[in-house]
Amino acid sequence: MRELSLGPRRHRDLAAGLPGIPSNVLAARLKDLQAAGVVVRRTLPAPTDVTVYELTDAGRALQPALKELLAWGRPMHRNRPRTTQCSPVGPCRAS
């Protein structure tokens, strides 16, 4: 949502702005957001014929609430213990 708040974006531009997120996971989340009516996918007219994703009116209406959630969660994120070891089959151990 943060990347889309900047305006229409191609899939690869979204991926570049969200390092560490696999392409297939990003595609699945975009489909979920489309199904929820928060994001729309459209093809720009010729000569570009580029497919972009952008927020709908409903998606833009969510922005203030998401900003408030971010402001609320930031202090908690800063104060959490750092993790040094994580295993795909076990819990992360705090340092």
Compact overview of the structure:
The chain is built from three helices and four strands. It is an alpha+beta fold.
Structural key phrases:
single chain, 95 residues, alpha+beta, Arc Repressor Mutant, subunit A, two-stranded antiparallel ribbon, two-stranded antiparallel sheet, 3 helices, 4 strands, 45% helix, transcription, WH-like_DNA-bd_sf, DNA-binding, HTH_HxlR, HTH hxlR-type domain-containing protein
Which architecture does the CATH hierarchy give at level 2? Orthogonal Bundle
CATH superfamily: Winged helix-like DNA-binding domain superfamily/Winged helix DNA-binding domain
Average of the residue pLDDT scores: 84
One letter per element, helices H and strands E, the order comes to HHEEHEE
Task: Look up the CATH topology.
Answer: Arc Repressor Mutant, subunit A
Q: Could you estimate the helical fraction of the residues in percent? A: 40-55%
Shape: globular
Pfam family, one: HxlR
Protein name: HTH hxlR-type domain-containing protein
Keywords: DNA-binding, Transcription, Transcription regulation
Description:
With 95 residues, the chain is α+β, with helices and mostly antiparallel strands. It has a single domain, classed as Arc Repressor Mutant, subunit A. It has helices at residues 11-17, 23-35, 57-79, and strands at residues 39-43, 51-55, 83-87, 90-94. Strands 1-2 form a two-stranded antiparallel sheet. A two-stranded antiparallel sheet has the order 3-4. The radius of gyration is 17 Å and the shape is globular. The two termini are 32 Å apart. This is HTH hxlR-type domain-containing protein. Residues 74-95 are annotated as: Disordered.
